[in-house]
Amino acid sequence: MKSEHIRVSTEGGAVSLVVDDWELCDFLDDHLTDLGFEFHLTIEGQGELQTYVLRLSADTTLSAIEQALARVPDDEIRQIWEINKGRK
Q: Which of 21, 39, 86, 88 has its CA 20 to 30 A from that of 78?
């Protein structure tokens, strides 16, 4: 996986991305939209425990989402996370 802050889930047979940070989720939202993926965004939890879930369309395969994530450089993901969390 690209980052400890992005997790792929196949719970219930559908592919989802669980993201720990709003800015990182927004970045992935744009990236996946540009690649033609369809998904529904939900926000789960509150405060520090809040996560963002991109639930992909039923026809999205695990392989397809892994390939889409592989197109994003690890450094870019880390930079977005660190800047948003004030670590840089």
A: 39
The residue written with tokens 């991109």 in the block is: 54
pTM here?
0.86
Tokens of 24: 């990182």
Q: pLDDT tens digit string along 30-76? A: 999 999 999 999 999 988 789 999 999 999 999 999 999 999 988 89
Classify the phi-psi angles of 84: left when phi > 0, otherwise alpha if psi is within -120 to 50, otherwise beta: alpha
16-19: strand order across its sheet: 6-9, 16-19, 51-56, 39-44
Q: How many residues does the chain have?
A: 88
Query: How many angstroms separate the CA atoms of 35 and 38, rounded?
Result: 9
Q: Which of 50, 32, 51, 53 is nearest to 42 (CA)?
A: 53
